[in-house]
């Protein structure tokens, strides 16, 4: 038993001594004295230098408004007899919205028609001349007027003889003289009418009648125009908004009856700071978003850039036309416009985080043959994520993107 215990102690002692000498299990082999220590390699990640497009943008707030907003204003007043549209309806240009009582205007049209027809008839009669029946009537009137004059003239001669004999007063003679003058005037007028009928209307008379026809025609057209105003139509195509008309209500030209908006195209109004305004010009394409339509982008075109700053904000009003075929944008919505200040196309681009600085000198580490190599670079347009490299790198080079702060120039690295 004692021998067994002694043997166990010896075995344990040998194992312990072997572990201490080898710093590990006895089966591990000690490194030969004077052997080279393996080279330390830092694990890094890289990105390849590639070509791409960069844009420097700035976000500004916008408010969306319809491209057109036109009030519906009646051209005449009166009582509404029929309403043919409602708020929110999509209407077409010249579509009837409501009707106004037209009773009195219809009567005015009828009167104007009658006056026009009468003027035309008078002109036609003058151009045609007197008929045979008219001439006979006028000749008969002349015969009667001459007979009447002859009778009065004979009576005057008899009364004058009596006056000369002082058998009647001067007053009685004057009364007969007046009858003679009236009869003479009637005869002259009858003969003149007959002569005019035989001769026909003069050019002056015809001109006067033609002018009367034109005047009557203008009055008729005006009456019809006034009548047409009782049918109130849409001035533009769009959506009928703020429509307040009801049957039986009164309307007048002084009060709009509603508003029509064309929301197929919208206008985005923005105020742009002076530091950005010179980067914009009409025709520039703009990306926009609306707060009420998350996840959807809209494309707009700059239409106007105000040359004068707003006196309150000292910023410049800018208007952007936006297509709204989807009808997602509503008047009064707010959103964001992303204005492009600078743009670089097909340039060498690397992530901003790969660039280090030695004073003002920008540099990066690239991997060549398993070693980190410093490359001084010149940069251009930069965004929050990427930067343009204008000198110092070539397309396809591998730039250290993780571990660049730990490596040194010439350090051995392992790309993962």
- Structural class by helix and strand composition: alpha+beta
Determine the fraction of residues in helical runs and give it as a percent range.
25-40%
- What is the straight-line distance between the termini? 61 Å
**General form:** rod-shaped
Question: Unreliable runs, pLDDT <50, ≥5 residues?
Answer: 1-37
Total beta strand runs? 19
Overall pLDDT level: 85
**Strand numbers in spatial order across the main sheet:** 2-9-12-11-10-13
Characterize the largest beta sheet: strand count, sense, and whether it forms a barrel.
Answer: 6 strands, antiparallel, barrel
| DSSP strand content | 25-35%
Give me a quick take on this structure.
The protein is an alpha+beta fold and about 425 residues long.
What does this structure look like?
There is one protein chain. With 416 residues, this protein is an alpha+beta fold. It has 6 helices and 19 strands. The protein has helices at 2-22, 103-128, 132-164, 170-199, 203-228, 274-277; strands at residues 42-48, 50-72, 78-83, 90-91, 96-100, 231-233, 238-241, 250-251, 258-272, 285-290, 297-305, 316-323, 334-351, 356-358, 361-368, 371-382, 386-391, 398-402, 413-415. A 6-stranded antiparallel beta barrel has the order 2-9-12-11-10-13. A 4-stranded antiparallel sheet has the order 6-5-3-8, with no helix packed on it. A 3-stranded mixed sheet has the order 18-1-19, with no helix packed on it. Helix 2 (103-128) packs antiparallel against helix 5 and helix 3 (132-164) runs antiparallel to helix 4 (170-199).
